[in-house]
Amino acid sequence: MHKAAFLLILIVFVSCNSNSHFRSYKVISNGWLSSETISFTISKPPSKSSDLFIHIRNTNDYQYANIFLIAELKDSVQVIIRDTLEYAMADPKGNWLGTGFLDVKESKLIWKRNWRASHKGPYYIEFSQRVRNNGSVKGVSVLEGIVNIGLAIEPQNQH
User: Fold this and answer.
1) CA distances for 58 relative to 54, 68, 128, 143, 147, angstroms
2) Backbone phi, psi, residue 12, to 5°
3) Is the peptide bond before 155 cis (omega within 30 degrees of 0)?
4) Minimum mean pLDDT among 4-8, 18-22, 123-127: which range?
5) Of 11, 72, 88, 128, which has fewest CB within 10 angstroms of its CB?
């Protein structure tokens, strides 16, 4: 219970950032399934050029030095952007690259710089994990240690 209360306080504290056009987090309770898509809806996208960031919160239960993601930006008609992304989560010595204290570290990862909405929205953003063990073709079916995935849209030059 103590860990859940800490995570809730952390989410509320970090989510209250007035420099963002949009910031939202989704909780991952029992590991991130390879079949699970984390979705965000941007009802009112910013009119000015902005940067898209992925926020990943992990615990020491995360067993990998990096993470592989599929990221999609869609509107009601089509996929506008689809990227396969790799981000480092730890340095070569195994130290987490994210910030934070206690058991949870948060990594703020740039996805798109200078993104500008082409219409008033809504837009839909989805993330899925594609982590694999070395030498394995099959992906990790349950990715342990990822507790939140977040999305932030920030005006340029605010970070």
Assistant:
1) 13, 14, 15, 11, 6
2) -65, -45
3) no
4) 4-8
5) 88
